[in-house]
């Protein structure tokens, strides 16, 4: 996913007015730090954004520039502190502690390890610095907001798409599937897995299932190779992959094992290489997440909190300790016939980018030429 930062920052967006009927009011922040000393009536504040890793293309190509652009649009005088943990929980802990020491007014945090970072969230809470859990739920402590997608629904979409593909090929009930779930330290992974099992259990045999450390494509490839060896090549009829990066690893393993054609495989994130694989038929589907909407919403909340406001949230999510005010966006399942009306229509990827290289010849069949 390689669009220029400038291209995204130039996107014209309608201003979204945040409801402030639940403003901070008096001095009590209700325990989450959301109405502490972060009031910046002069239009300046320090907002920190911390993302978990770089292996998944979206974080550096989309989440970071979109969040930063929206903050600057709403608050030109605001400073954004940024850090990427490179999948290292200790590094992320240090990044958050540094932001607290630098006097950050608000922290938006996509946790590498949701449990490991809880002490730093508590430090922020004690300093009355509101924290927004971005994309991944942080467990075990109260904080201001959670901004993500309906993650159980993501898993259900993946499971249903895989069932539909197996039925279309006439292979449902004639073999087993492999499940490549996400990182066990990411609470979202459990939601994706739950959603997939909601759809798949009792309808298909699951031959092997893995919780893939770090969402690593390389580890997913190794897991897929293990599954093929254990089950036998002819017995694997489909793969439930929780994201596009791992799907790429699994596809590499299946190609090496001599699959032709490849069994249907799912994904998530609408990475450019995955969209091209869908066009050419190597990947069955992806789940498209409107990252622009997510990044903008988190940025809007961060600026509001820095100004001492506390917008009302439409939902609450139980993180094991508290009901966290939440904004949960809707995911979209995308197969070949839906690329044009979703990913292209929203400007997430252009036809020119999708139809480059090996995907060019197949684009007419996907309605992209």
UniProtKB/TrEMBL annotation:
<feature type="domain" description="Periplasmic binding protein">
    <location>
        <begin position="47"/>
        <end position="309"/>
    </location>
</feature>
<dbReference type="Pfam" id="PF13407">
    <property type="entry name" value="Peripla_BP_4"/>
</dbReference>
<keyword id="KW-0732">Signal</keyword>
<dbReference type="InterPro" id="IPR050555">
    <property type="entry name" value="Bact_Solute-Bind_Prot2"/>
</dbReference>
<protein>
    <submittedName>
        <fullName>Sugar ABC transporter substrate-binding protein</fullName>
    </submittedName>
</protein>
<dbReference type="InterPro" id="IPR028082">
    <property type="entry name" value="Peripla_BP_I"/>
</dbReference>
<dbReference type="InterPro" id="IPR025997">
    <property type="entry name" value="SBP_2_dom"/>
</dbReference>
<feature type="signal peptide">
    <location>
        <begin position="1"/>
        <end position="24"/>
    </location>
</feature>
């Amino acid at each position: 996913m390689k669009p220029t930062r400038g291209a995204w920052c130039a996107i014209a967006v309608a201003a979204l007015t945040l409801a402030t009927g639940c403003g901070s009011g008096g001095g009590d922040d209700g325990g989450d730090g959301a109405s502490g000393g972060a009031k910046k009536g002069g239009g300046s504040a320090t907002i920190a954004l911390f993302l978990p890793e770089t292996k998944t293309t979206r974080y550096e190509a989309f989440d970071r520039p979109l969040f930063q652009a929206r903050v600057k649009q709403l608050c030109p005088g605001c400073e954004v502190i940024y850090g990427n943990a490179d999948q290292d929980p200790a590094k992320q802990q240090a990044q958050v502690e540094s932001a607290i020491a630098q006097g950050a007014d608000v922290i938006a945090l996509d946790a590498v390890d949701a449990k490991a970072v809880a002490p730093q969230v508590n430090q922020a809470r004690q300093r009355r610095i509101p924290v927004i859990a971005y994309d991944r739920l942080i467990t075990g402590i109260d904080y201001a907001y959670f901004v993500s997608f309906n993650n159980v629904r993501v898993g259900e979409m993946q499971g249903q798409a895989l069932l539909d593909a197996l039925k279309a090929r006439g292979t449902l009930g004639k073999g087993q599937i492999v499940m490549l779930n996400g990182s066990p330290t990411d609470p979202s992974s459990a939601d994706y897995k739950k959603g997939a099992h909601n759809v798949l259990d009792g309808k298909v045999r699951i031959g092997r299932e893995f919780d893939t450390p770090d969402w690593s494509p390389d580890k997913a490839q190794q897991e897929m190779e293990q599954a093929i060896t254990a089950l036998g090549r002819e017995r694997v009829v489909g793969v439930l992959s929780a994201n596009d990066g791992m799907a790429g690893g699994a596809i590499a393993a299946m190609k090496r094992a001599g699959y032709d054609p490849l069994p249907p495989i799912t994904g998530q994130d609408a990475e450019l290489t995955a969209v091209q694989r869908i066009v050419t038929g190597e990947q069955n589907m992806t789940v498209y997440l409107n990252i622009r909407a997510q990044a903008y919403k988190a940025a809007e909340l961060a600026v509001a909190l820095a100004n001492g406001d506390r917008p009302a949230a439409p939902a609450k999510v139980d993180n094991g300790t508290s009901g966290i005010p939440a904004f949960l966006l809707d995911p979209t399942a995308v197969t070949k016939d839906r690329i044009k009306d979703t990913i292209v229509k929203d400007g997430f990827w252009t036809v020119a980018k999708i139809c480059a290289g090996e995907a060019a010849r197949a684009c007419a069949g996907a309605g992209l030429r």
